[in-house]
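Technical appendix A lists one of the benchmark inputs used to test multi-chain prediction within the project. The record comprises two sequence entries:
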Amino acid sequence: MKSKIILLFLISFFMTVSTFAEKRLKIVTTTSDLASLAQEIGKDRVNIVSLSYGNRDPHFIEPRPSMVMKLKKADLVLLVGMDLDIWIESLIDTARNNKIKIGNRGYLDVSKGIKKLEVPQGKVDASMGHVHPQGNPHYWLDPENTKIIANSITQKLIELAPESTSYFKTNLNNFSDKIDKKIKTWQTALSPYKGNKIITYHRSWSYFANRFGLDVACEIEPKPGIPPYPGHLKNVLEKIKQHKIKVILMEVFYNLKPAQFLAEKANIQVVVIPNSVRGIPSANDYFSLMDIIVNNLAKAFHDLIPTDFVAD
Amino acid sequence: MKSISKSLILFILSFGLVFLACENNIFAKTNTIVNTSALELPDISVVGNIVGAYGSNDSLKNNKKVVVEGVGLSLQGYLYPTIRTDIIMALHKHGTSYQADLEEAYVSFLELYLPGAGIHIPDLSIKLGKKLLDIGKINVQHSHHWNYAARPAVLNSFFGDHGLNGEGMSFSYLLPTSFFCQLDVGLWYIDSAHTHDDEATHSENTSVLGMAHYNYLNRLWSSFELSSDQELEIGLNSITGYGTHYQEHTDKVTVTGLDLTYRQILSSYQRLLFQNEVYSLKREVPVGILNRLGFYSFLNYRMNRYWDYGLLYDYVETPFLDMQTQSYLSAIVTHSLTKMTKARLQYKKSLRESDYAIYLQLTFGIGPHSHPLE
């Protein structure tokens, strides 16, 4: 009798598991940051595939036919939006998956609800470099924005799988609690350096700087997407010396040489970090990504600036 | 002169109509308050191709000149949630004059969904209109998208110097396989006037055939993800129709081909591309059947975001009675100022004769220009 009960239990268990496995929402994201955030909410009720990883420049992803098959099976596609992942449009068209077509239930541009920075006014063209007409799209680097993103994802998951509403909402609450605690930790780590000026390679750190009270004095790129030339590097050098700037912050995939040149000429430290999940192996989710960014930046400041240093 | 004026006026009028239709005048002063309400406009872009050529053979097209090979105005957008249109109007150089040309104007039904008729076949899409035909990898691309200044000889010789471009319709079906596999079947009418050189130069150029009249086109395109960084695409192509001399004599042409593309992502910007197309042409003419072969092999290394280097080998047996064999080796350097604007230097050396040609090319684009997956 006992063995029959155990057998019945095991059968029910595996049937339940397989039911949930079959019912797992299939999500495709354009970046590994969105994949990480979606995983926080969906956990074992979702299967997530990211079409790009953090060690790639998201502006330069080449659409490939194999990506079409991932989209074909998807219940939901998550985009950063703001023209950062415009390359996915031809893939969505080719996939012929009505669920994920633009504007349909399975299509979510998570930039909705984000307070956008650096939205250009007036005419926009290539004389300004590679400018995003809808504003700076690197908003995931402000951890407060991840709460907005996570909330959007939660609402969408509830819409697609209403039977898991309480599950998704619980995960959202847990995520929100965790990110709030981590934001406090990160702010504490960087608070001694509030007001400090930094140099970045590309204009991708505006949201991060805004959140943590840092001032991006200028970029190594003279304009977004335009490689640095000697005259511009000379101007950057002058700025470094004038404002006693101590740190250059740049992503793992950019050319190190201009930053190394500046480091040789001025007492400035180059901090090379990922700006996206899986930009390096240890940045395997959003929390570890931000830990790496904050800890490396704080260490760089600490090594160069005493904690009671007062910024200009 | 008259034909230039007419064509130019037509092109300018078309261009002007687009801007008159715009709700916001794009030439407005920059201190004008921007209307931030949503705009119902197609994606409008301008693309161009400027080429300078210098060659040892005086018969080289536009030798010792810098010419605007073509400029195009592109209008792209959705007509309906599952229907989009792509329109490209172009000015091309023909001989010494420019002619306005409707290069592409087609409607894509992304899936067959007619709710009123109760028809829904999600994996089937239809294209109808006028377009560059989906054969191989390059024919469907506009010149600003190429990886070379001079098209491989086989494509010029077999398909015409403007590529295979026809009016008709095609069905495209994504097969229910675990890997990408798409079948395209189409019937296209090719206007032979677009596959010939100008009459004045035609008799001098016996290397370009081109296709004409009704042609059946089939393509089976598969792609295999070897790893997250490696992909192999294989295409089987066939086109059955007529050569451009069909009105003068029997001229039935069948072209079968294989394309193979290997792509490896090495780092964020570094990429290796190995692309090949091989075609077998069978041409039935009054004196018998001509069998000809042509192919190209292209190796491209993108070193970083701004520079890439390529080697191109191309070979063709011209599809005429007095067959000539042409083979070339090219070295290509491309500097990408942006994704749409590139400067390119190509050195092309004939392997059969002592001829060489040097091309300096500038391709550019303004505006949001997109391509279907290629």
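The radius of gyration of chain B is 21 Å. Helices of chain B lie at 2-21, 153-159, 199-202. Comparable benchmark entries are summarised in Table A2.
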